[in-house]
Amino acid sequence: MSINSESDIAANLQIGPTDRGMVRIYVEAENVDLPLDFDPDEAEEIAEELLAAAEAARGMKGGKDKPGKSVRKPRR
User: Fold this and answer.
1) Relative to the CA of 22, which of 13, 30, 73, 74 has its CA 20 to 30 Å away?
2) What is the pTM assigned to this prediction?
3) Interval 15-59: pLDDT, tens
4) How many CA atoms lie within 13 Å of 49's alpha carbon, on the beta-carbon side?
5) Where is this region: Disordered (predicted)?
């Protein structure tokens, strides 16, 4: 599945700090519980990438998609 593939999968997303000083992005869907931990600097980079993607999505016309930037692998 690519970033441009649509899906009917519903998921819940939670984001917050952990008691170990990490930032956790927690994805929960049917049969999936996925905690992704990032150090604060990595979390800021992800936030910047999300903002850049939102800006690019607002600027798209005629359904032309720009390739997205990959997010770092989480630490476990």
Assistant:
1) 30
2) 0.70
3) 999 999 999 999 999 999 999 999 999 999 999 999 999 999 999
4) 12
5) 56-76
Q: Residue 35, SS3?
A: strand
Q: How many CB atoms lie under 10 A from the CB of residue 27?
A: 13
Per-residue tokens: 73: 């692998």
Q: Where are the beta strands (DSSP E) in the chain?
A: 11-17, 23-29, 32-38
C-alpha Rg value of the chain to the nearest Å: 14
Question: Tokens 């990032």 belong to which residue?
Answer: 38
Cβ contacts of residue 52 below 8 Å, gap of 6+?
69
